[in-house]
Amino acid sequence: MLLLLTPTALLSAPAIQPVMMPLGPGPDAVADSTARMVGAILDYTRWPAPRTMVRLCLTGAPRHAGRMGDIILSNGARVAASSLDEAQEGASDRCDALYIGPMNGAAMRRLIAGAGGQPVVTIAEDDPTCRSGAMFCLLYTPQSLSFQLSIDAVSRSAVRIDPRVLRLSKGGY
Question: Which Pfam family is one of those matched by this entry (predicted)?
Answer without folding.
Answer: DUF4154
